[in-house]
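Name: Uu.00g016490.m01.CDS01
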Amino acid sequence: MSPPTTAQDTDKRCAACLFRLQHEVQSLKEDTSFSGDFEPKDVKDYEHCVDIELLERSSKRGCHMCTHIKTTLVDHYGEGQVDDINWERGGFFVGPTMEPWDAFMLADDDSRDGEEFHGKGEAAQDQTVLHPFLGRFSHPSGDTSSAKALGRFQGWLSRCLEEHTHCGGSDEKPMPHRVVEILDYETAQVRLVDTRGTHGKYACLSHRWCPETMPASLTTRRRLVFEDQIPESSLYPLLREAIAVAGQAGMRFIWIDCLCIIQDDPHDWAVEASTMASIYDNAFLTIASTGCESGSGLFAKDTPYDATEIPVTPEASMCIRPVLNHPLWRTKHRAIEISIDETAYPLVNRGWVYQERALSKRTIHFTRTELVWGCVQDTWCECRSTYPLRPDQRADPSTRTAAIVPSHHPQDAAETSWDKIVARYTQMDLSFAEDRLPALGAMARRYAKYHSLNYVAGLWRETLARDLSSWRLNRHGGTVVRPRPRPLPAPTWSWASVAGHVALDSDAEAEAPGEFLDIVGHEVEPVDGGDVYGRLRVARLAVVGPVVIGVLAEAPPHATGGPGPGNSLAPEAPNQGFMRVGDEVLTFRADYDFTAPGPDRLETGMEVGFLLCHRWRCAHGLVLRCVDGEREGAVYERIGTTGQLMYNEHFGIRTPDVPWCLERAERIRITLV
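Structure predicted for Uu.00g016490.m01.CDS01:
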């Protein structure tokens, strides 16, 4: 047997860890594929899979990097629990669960974010000498109130102002009607000032209301007191710390909803809600309490953090750690999908915050682990593992947010249709049901502007005939079927009347969307001081279409067969209903739990109507109940949408087709409320 060969660190790389081999380390046959200057053609898409057996052999032959990696993984998972690791840009995945890990060269505090990924090009060429995939990242500060953390924030803000043409500069913008003036941020001396009609720079606070909020809020009686000086009792820790951050950023003014909107004045509330789009759009900076569940404070301190640091050269070290959770932002681990953890990011599950994030030009997020910066053009964090945006993913300056306007990127466009916006928004929580429309009003206003559409209680006048029957309560993902909220936050024909996650399908595959339905008029009247994007006093539609009259029925006996596997008329949920028309029984899905006590409870034998709207494989439409009048000209509320199954004791289960409906329908004019 020939003696083992050795490799110079300028000639070969380790086939397992991809670092350069040291002079004294023996070569393995697998090393021959990797020269010292190895660099994949496309770092972004390149992956390198290493089984654990190779990692162990490399460790035994003397590669100290492989030894450190193996030891760390064994300590984390246990002996024999790791099959392989899969290197890719910025780290690796660990099989068989494919858990992502960060792997990076430790950056000094002066190195810039956005240059953490290397490969061909100018960025971080010095790092390709050490490793073809690993960039310069950092450890979070562990204290988001520290000088180190806030210094990074100041650096991000300065860089955004200097380099980002799409984020807006420091020009003065129209001010909100009222703001909090910061007289001394260190002692939290502040007062309420009226700034309507003026221009300036101000910050906004995006926060979750907590038990401390309402007692501290602006009211009619407190207004004069607040204009003199907001008392310390109204500045619970989260508000004080947000004011301090704004002051340290050089801001003289900050807008905080609970301190700037008169909470016991419905007219003032409606007026301010109608200006929400401009308030966040014109803000110089938004401070987001993303990791805060209560009012106890904005900052996070002594955050537990686990990482292994491995010396590579006297001047450089590699660190490996399980990936820090960044579900709200793009990370270098492009393939992973991490669900939003409500305990880690309680703010982002709030309905009002959805549009606040979309409308803000630049935001500093205070999470439980670190600071995260987000602006129109980029995202940065303390650990530096967020993924820099490509030019085609950056928002156009005239549109600012891809969550509102069409995107040139196909995937983004698919994710930002109104259907998707409603689906995301309705998964979030609201403290008050009547906020269902106002909390999305600013986004709707912007969407209407850029798409040239007319807004009608959460839907669009131009597509109403289609949209009326295209939304439904989404029972997937554990959605709880709840009673209908009263008083109604929106008309029953709008998704905003439903308490729960809504799926709004555009029915692009329908043979003729809305072909049987004519919208002959609509009336939408906002509350005093508001507009059509907020709370509504009246919202009704006049429609003409074919209506089939029937009665509510029990599930038919023995109706568990059908033309396909799993077809059954057996009740599946509290919103599964049945409508009898002559000898046939149709299924429908209600928008709410109609078995709950109250005015919306449905009883067997009640008369209901089936309003045919369109066809797609079978007849589709709305299930209605009359609340005033009879037939022609009567007033109806929506109960739900028809299903795709119908039962006849002679023919079994089949689908309701259009001819069947038209034979039994009368085309009449009705009003939907």
